[in-house]
Design brief:
- The chain has 340 residues and is mainly beta.
- The protein has 2 helices and 18 strands.
- Strands 1, 2, 3, 4, 5, 6, 7, 12, 14, 15, 17 and 18 form a 12-stranded mixed beta sheet that branches. A 4-stranded antiparallel beta sheet has the order 9-8-13-16, with no helix packed on it.
- A hairpin with a 6-residue loop joins strand 8 and strand 9.
């Protein structure tokens, strides 16, 4: 996920530069001194993952390759700044090349409700960056469905559904890893509905209900299709009798991640089948996000095209990017086609 977010952030930075008309942000590419971009995400109760430090790509005529814009040999540190921290150690990072940095201590755990600061410095290249964010507290999640004849809410008792995120194992570096753990074994759910709850357009819509999370600015949702792009099948295929049948989608048009969000005062949301585009296994992530990350996501996803007067609300000082924190619950289900 961090890698994909890194690409999005850099692309947005380029749009900002080109769309800006103020004197502080030159519109001429040849006059622009590429700014550093730091992308770092932490998760409550989990070790720290890979972070990225690079510069905005200046040559718009070339293929964007993140590794080619990476800033090497920077000193990057992460440490708590609030009084409620039990571990006050500073976490340092090793340069893996190409702008990729890995924590030196893989057992460094992010504490709930603790506020953290991250710094990145390389004086020889004018890099002096910092940002702060607070790790959200744990929260509960229930997944259920409404009875069509009334307003009662029935929560799942199907043992196949996984709600406790401590039972889920996946590689944070792979956004679309389709494995979860059951009975001590990793199970591949890709293209299999035998071990997952099945949802179709004929089912009552699902209801997600969550408790509040301290240090959270709101809830972010990811709906992630776990099928290879080449094998994706539309959940609602075009009607063969329709004369205006759409042409088959190209691979680059097959986005596998859907996003939504909810403000801090909201505590439930309906999950309709229309939110899903593809047939097959899906992972749904419900993330209590730090205030800084929620505001960045809101202005990035729904703020319209970035301009000089309407940029993504980033918390990064001395450059571009974001330092955000989440506390996450996830569950899996299988979306299945039905005859029209």
């Amino acid at each position: 996920m961090v890698k994909n977010m890194n690409w999005i952030i850099t692309a947005l930075c380029l749009l900002i530069i080109l769309a800006s008309g103020c004197e502080n942000t030159p519109t001429e590419v040849e006059d622009y001194d590429p700014e550093p971009v730091l992308t770092a995400f932490i998760e409550s109760g989990k070790p720290v993952g890979t972070i990225w430090l690079e510069r905005v790509m200046k040559d718009l005529g070339s293929l964007y390759v993140p590794e080619n814009t990476g800033i090497s040999d920077a000193v990057i540190e992460l440490f708590p700044i609030s009084d409620n921290a039990l571990n006050n150690d500073t976490l340092t990072f090793a340069d893996l090349g190409g702008g990729k940095y890995q924590p030196d201590n893989p057992d460094y755990i992010i504490e709930h409700t603790v506020r953290y600061k991250i710094t990145a410095n390389k004086p020889s290249e004018g890099v002096n960056m910092w940002a702060e964010t607070a790790a959200p507290d744990i929260f509960t999640l229930q997944v259920g469905y409404e009875i069509p004849s009334g307003d009662s809410l029935i929560f799942f008792e199907d043992p196949r559904i996984i709600i406790d995120d401590s039972t889920i194992t996946f590689d944070d570096s792979d956004l679309l890893n389709p494995f979860f753990q059951k009975d001590g074994q990793n199970i591949n759910v890709q293209n299999s509905d035998s071990i997952l709850p099945v949802m179709t357009r004929d089912n009552p819509f699902l209801v997600l209900k969550w408790s509040s999370s301290d240090s959270s600015g709101g809830i972010l949702f990811h709906i992630i299709a776990l099928t290879d792009t080449a094998s994706l099948e539309l959940l609602s295929p075009p009607d063969p009798n329709d004369e205006e049948e759409e042409e088959e989608l190209e691979p680059e048009q097959k986005g596998r991640v859907g996003r939504s969000l909810a403000p801090n005062y909201q505590d439930e949301m309906g999950l309709l089948w229309i939110f899903f585009q593809w047939e097959g296994a899906h992972r749904i992530d419900i993330m209590a996000a730090s205030y800084e990350y929620y505001r960045y996501a809101f202005t990035t996803w729904f703020g319209g095209p970035p301009t000089a007067s309407a940029r993504p609300e980033s918390n990064m000082n001395g450059g571009l990017g974001v330092f955000g924190a989440t506390c996450t619950h996830s569950f899996y289900l299988y979306m299945k086609q039905v005859e029209l």
